[in-house]
């Protein structure tokens, strides 16, 4: 699929593709720069895994003492650099989700609306990598976190909407136009089959 994009073919339109459209485009860009060898893809995965380990440590620091957070970051090696998930696409979505969680924790600490909007923008990557597994699951999780945040801070329901709307706007600003464009070219049955 990644090489197909380099050859000028597009997912859904020119070949069957079961994931979101962003993965082949990212790898085609990387292959264009570094060459289309398997080692390039594996090195990208290792680099992404290293960043994911740092993000796991950063997330752990929010909820654990530093020593335990370091252990958590170390143990994340086995999640991100040892185990290869179903496809190379998932790495980008997982990276975006972890970065979104870091930003959401920053939002919980500082209550800046721009943080929740940026977290939504990062989730766009997940929706464009794997819309149902990575994107939708993370969206539901974040909305549940927002509800818990409202309950724990004993805020009123209007605060939920004040936080949820920028988050949803961050997701929608790129996801909806991308899928509308795809659906204008390809039948729905080919996109989500």
Q: What's the story with the biggest beta sheet?
A: none
Query: What structural category do the secondary elements indicate?
Result: mainly alpha
Q: Kindly state the percentage of residues in helix.
A: over 70%
Strand content: under 5%
Task: Tell me the overall shape.
Answer: flat
Radius of gyration: 18 Å
Helix/strand order, N-terminal first: HHHHHHHHH
Tally the helices.
9
Distance between the termini: 17 Å
Average pLDDT works out at 83
Question: How many β strands by DSSP?
Answer: 0
Which regions are unreliable across 5 or more consecutive residues at pLDDT < 50?
A: none
Looking at this protein, list some descriptive labels.
0% strand; 80% helix; 193 residues; flat; mainly alpha
Report on this model:
This protein is mostly helical and 193 residues long. Helix content is 80%, strand content 0%. It has nine helices and no strands.
Structure described in brief:
The chain has 193 residues and is an all-alpha fold. The chain contains 9 helices and no strands.
Topology:
Elements: H1 2-6, H2 22-34, H3 38-63, H4 66-82, H5 89-110, H6 113-129, H7 131-152, H8 157-185, H9 188-191
Helix pairs in contact: 3-4, 3-5, 5-6, 5-7, 6-7, 6-8, 7-8
């Amino acid at each position: 699929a990644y090489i197909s994009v380099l050859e000028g073919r597009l997912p859904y339109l020119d070949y069957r593709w079961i994931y979101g459209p962003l993965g082949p485009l990212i790898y085609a860009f990387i292959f264009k720069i570094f060459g289309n060898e398997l080692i390039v893809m594996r090195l990208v995965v290792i680099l992404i895994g290293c960043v994911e380990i740092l993000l796991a440590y950063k997330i752990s620091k929010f909820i654990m003492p530093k020593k335990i957070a370091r252990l958590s970051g170390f143990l994340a090696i086995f999640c991100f650099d040892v185990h290869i998930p179903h496809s190379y696409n998932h790495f980008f979505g997982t990276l975006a989700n972890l970065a979104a969680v870091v930003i959401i924790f920053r939002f919980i600490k500082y209550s800046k609306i721009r943080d929740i909007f940026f977290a939504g923008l990062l989730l766009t990557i997940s929706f464009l990598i794997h819309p149902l597994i990575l994107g939708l699951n993370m969206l539901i999780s974040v909305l549940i976190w927002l509800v818990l945040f409202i309950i724990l801070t004993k805020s009123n329901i209007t605060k939920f909407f004040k936080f949820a709307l920028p988050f949803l706007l961050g997701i929608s600003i790129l996801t909806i136009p991308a899928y509308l464009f795809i659906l204008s070219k390809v039948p729905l049955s080919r996109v989500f089959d």
